[in-house]
Amino acid sequence: xLMDIRTGSSTLSRFILAEQRHFPEATGDLxxxxxxxAFAAKLxxxxxxxxxxxxxxxxxxxxxxxxxxxxxxxxFANSRMIQALDHLGLFCGMASEEEExxxxxxxxxxxxxxxxxxDPLDGSSNIDVNVNIGTIFGIYKKINxxxxxxxxxxxxxxxxxxTCAGYIVYGSSTMFVYTTGRGVNGFTLDPTVGEFxxxxxxxxxxxxxxxxxxxxxxxxxxxPEMQKYIVDLRSKMDKAYxxxxxxxxxxxxxxxxxxxxxxxxxxxxxxxxxxLRLLYEANPLAFITEQAGGRAVDGFNxxxxxxxxxxxxxxxxxxxxxxxxxMYMKYVGAGKNK
Length: 338
Ligand code: AHM
Ligand code: MG
Prior knowledge:
Blueprint: H1 12-20, H2 29-49, E1 59-63, E2 69-71, H3 72-85, E3 91-96, E4 114-122, E5 133-141, E6 164-170, E7 174-179, E8 184-190, E9 195-200, E10 211-213, H4 224-235, E11 242-243, H5 249-259, E12 261-265, E13 276-277, H6 278-291, E14 295-297, E15 314-315, E16 317-320, H7 322-332
Parallel strand pairs: 3-4, 10-11, 10-12
Antiparallel strand pairs: 1-2, 4-5, 5-6, 6-7, 7-8, 8-9, 12-16, 13-15, 14-16
Helix pairs in contact: 1-2, 2-3, 4-7
The protein binds 2,5-anhydro-1,6-di-O-phosphono-D-mannitol and magnesium ion (MG).
């Protein structure tokens, strides 16, 4: 799976083009979109890397719609994603975790058949402390038969209908990971040439892993079933589980994708519907997870089968290696009515 980036010399562009040939009906649109996202990621990654020296760290005097203080880099990342994509003539609308309403395509540009949802800078509470953060995106086709701009209803598609999903993690290196439903591949940015190079081909999540990732500070707020699951993971299972929690979903997810394990952000007394967002976070990562052989649930349903009711909907997220997620479902009583 892990390739030497000196010998595995396929660039992201070359790889996408080769993939496109597997879809005879492909127009090249998705290729262009992914290249533009990669370009936005390079710009965001550059700002992330120089955040400490560019006086860009810190809050701006605004709050996003969830009431969280927005960081300057959140604002930067959000606008870079929009600017990279709005002019292509391929989208009829965009939705961002950072914006209350759907983002229209400016009138001066033609409209296309795609919709994109994104979390421009996930894990933003970690910006100030030099910890890994990321960008998450999902791409759909408009299925409702109306011309022109997308409306909110167009975004309320199940994750199962995703055409493409991916994320970028800004870590010790910058990595771009995506799927179009034909497996999951990862690309590492070679900063000396400014290209994403195929470094992780056909990523498969181990069926079981020994990592569990959860904010255990919430223990007292969890349901008894959730508490029992974690207590048993810690003490009674036949192998030694180990806890790893960064507090940046993309980074926690990425580590577990490569090493195996489970990430959990369940419902709790403070967040009765979970904390993470179905459209911007859970669905794209669930698509990647299923493509890599893993599983993602909310405790009752597969994440990808949930019918969204609004674009900023939160959802409990339990995601990762199949065995650990199956085990969670046994503990919380899957199948019972909510
Ligand atoms: P955000 O930074 O896009 O708002 O994402 C929310 C973050 C996730 O990256 C992470 O998994 C989670 O919130 C951590 O929450 P907590 O600090 O409650 O453990
Ligand atoms: Mg996020």
